[in-house]
Amino acid sequence: MPCNFLYFVGAMIESKTKEISSKLKDNSEILKVKSKLREIEDRSRRNNLRVDGLKESKNESWRDSEAKVLKLFEETLGLKDIKIERAHRTGSRDSKKVRSIVLKLVNYKDKENILKNSRKLKGENNYINEDYCAETMLIRKELRAGMKKAREAGMFAYISYDKLVVREWSRKPT
Fold first, then answer.
1. Which residues of 23-52 are buried (b: 16+ CB within 10 A; e: fewer)?
2. Is the Cα torsion angle 61, 67, 71, 72 positive or negative in sign?
3. Could you give the CA distance from residue 174 to residue 168 in angstroms, rounded to a whole number?
4. Which of 43, 47, 63, 42 is nearest to 107 (CA)?
5. Per-residue DSSP letter, 60
6. Neighbours of 112 (CB within 10 A)
7. Which parts of 45-169 fold into alpha helices (H)?
């Protein structure tokens, strides 16, 4: 009798182990698919930028948003002939907070030029950033704390997509 019971318990443990192993494999597959989906969504936003800080008028249309962004590019960044496929405000209208403008550029090189020249906005309340899906933006937000600590420790640190890169400052010989 005890031998049958042990055999039964052993068979139950083996069955549960296989079931758990299968679920872990399924979870691993789900995580891979979610990661791939996030990458695809971010890639679809490859030509997108977010512009924060531009005042919003009461009945602003997408044309008005586009005109404000083009004016910022020309007057502050010194960039002309930027082709925008579309530009619009995100989220719901709230009188307390200025909504971001998301814009899709026709040319990826325009995006690179805009980001390169966005340093000229330093000291103003306007900001230009790359547009990512919500999950990637959350990951980047969490990485900013580590980047700040690394910089305070005298390290060279920046965020590349969803990774924090930290290294020693490389000084050029004078």
1. eeeeeeeeeeeeeeebeeebeebebbbbbe
2. positive
3. 18
4. 47
5. -
6. 11
7. 62-75, 108-117, 134-152
- pLDDT tens for residues 118-157? 999 998 899 999 999 999 999 999 999 999 999 999 999 9
Helices vs. strands in the chain: H and E counts, helices first: 4, 6
Cite the beta strand spans of the chain per DSSP E.
Answer: 48-52, 84-89, 101-105, 127-130, 156-160, 163-167
Name 82's Cβ contacts closer than 8 Å, sequence gap at least 6: 70, 73, 105, 110, 114
The three-point CA angle 134-45-35 to 5° equals: 55
Using CA atoms, how far apart are residues 77 and 102, in angstroms rounded to an integer?
18
Whole-number pLDDT of residue 7: 73
**Phi, psi (rounded to 5 degrees) for 132:** -125, 165
- Find out whether 160 and 86 touch, Cβ atoms under 8 Å: no
